[in-house]
Design a protein that fits this description.
Rhomboid-like fold, mainly alpha, about 210 residues
Length: about 210
Amino acid sequence: MQKDWSNQPMAIRHFVLVCVAFELLALAGMGFGFGDDIRRLMLALGGFWPDLLRGAMPIYPGQPIAMFATSAFLHGGLLHLFMNMVGLMWIGPIVTERLGERAFWPLAGLCALGSGFGFVMLSQSSMPMVGASGVLFGFLGIVAAWSFLDRLRRRESLRPLIEQALVFAALNIALALLSGVIAWQAHLGGLLAGMLCGLLTWNARAPLRRV
């Protein structure tokens, strides 16, 4: 699967460009002497604030709903942005190749919903959550579900998938323990939402190529 920019579906390019634009805006604020004021403003208006679903007063009407989408486009810095965008440009085309480019936005939205609800239900934190990780993990869940069902249909061993899942889980646990700031609850919510989407869309188009 091609990961370079020229081979990316247009929907993924648009998603990446919006995320990059917001990050550049935050960095420009620092360059023009505003410090972190612009990033804090974007966080206040677009971050995922779990307390808004627990009765807290929103800044503007509809914020508790809008934040499921807006938070996916905001990131905590260049490294956070880079990791999510590279991951999405790798896994995203696998999904759009099977379902078509029009499926990207509905699936991304459902995975973002799962990510947000996972964060609210499993975390007691009042701190905001940002990033496209929920969408990325959701797309990983979609591909994992497809691969599982494809292997069952071909009567192939599930051991490679199980081994990959264990390695993936171990890496995420290690990152969460080392950093202490990774919203694993959001990752899990996105992953589960993606797996459900994968189960519901498995019969669409052709099976994944063998790797």
